[in-house]
Amino acid sequence: MIDWFQQTIVDTNRLRLFCFFVFFILAFLFIRFSVRMIRRQVKWWPGNITPGGTHIHHVVFGLVFMCVGGIAGLAVEDINDGWAALTAAVFGVGAALVLDEFALVLRLEDVYWSEQGRISVDAVFIAVALTGLALLGLSPLGLNDPSSSGEDTPLGLAIYLVISLALSIICLLKGKMWAGIFGLYVGIFAIVGAMRLARPESPWARKRYPAESKKMRKAVRRESRMRRPMNHAKRRFQDLIAGRPDQG
């Protein structure tokens, strides 16, 4: 295990990324456990921090952690040094606290336990997925792939980047968030997502599929048959990890 860690993480200069990844997940799980205990009004768990009657949300502490970890990390020269790992871990904790209240920052109101608050959990899942892909050595659009950097001409590389970005953007416009994100790393996801029908509530469908058109009817049927069970499973998983939003 030690040899694997040395060869896969340290020797590939991913120690900081590994520490960020681990502490990001741990901080998210801890803060979700904490807020669920507070929500249940468990007596043995500390409550909200409210000096002078002002509720200080944990996004504030997250910003402080991100500033400390980010600035300190810039001052560390050796990226495999223990201090570099520590600053990355601190930054990961801060990022988790901030993204856990992403919906609050986006809407400028406390929607943490509302249905709109699910976007915070989505943001955390996306961050975990992207960091995990980077930890595996994948880079968006293959920009850091040494096997192709010396073979492509500037024009060929530019065309490749434009097409890849365009396909991923089409996926996002069609409401296929994960296809658009993973398509930046593995092109086949973007190609398939861009070719398939858009989700009926997506900007692409609203703009290009008339209400009674064949494509819109097919998209609605597909949403009902495939997407809704998947979304239901995703919501149940989110509720298990992060807690169920208030009903009403």
- Separation, N- and C-terminal Cα atoms: 49 Å
- Rg from Cα: 21 Å
Number of strands: 0
Question: Which regions have little confidence, pLDDT < 50, spanning 5+ residues?
Answer: none
- What is the number of helices? 12
Helix/sheet category: mainly alpha
Order of SSEs: HHHHHHHHHHHH
Residues in helices, as a percent range: 55-70%
Mean pLDDT: 88
Overall outline:
flat
Largest sheet: none
Q: What share of residues are in beta strands?
A: under 5%
Structure description:
It is a single chain. By secondary structure, the chain is mainly α. It has a domain of 137 residues. 69% of the residues lie in helices and 0% in strands. The chain is flat. It starts with a helix and ends in a 6-residue tail after the last helix.
Q: What's a concise summary of this model?
A:
By secondary structure, the protein is mainly α. 69% of the residues lie in helices and 0% in strands.
Protein traits:
mainly alpha, 248 residues, 12 helices
What secondary-structure arrangement, pairings included, does this model have?
Elements: H1 2-10, H2 15-39, H3 58-75, H4 82-100, H5 102-107, H6 118-135, H7 146-149, H8 154-173, H9 177-183, H10 187-195, H11 203-208, H12 214-242
Helix pairs in contact: 2-4, 2-6, 3-4, 8-9, 8-10, 9-10
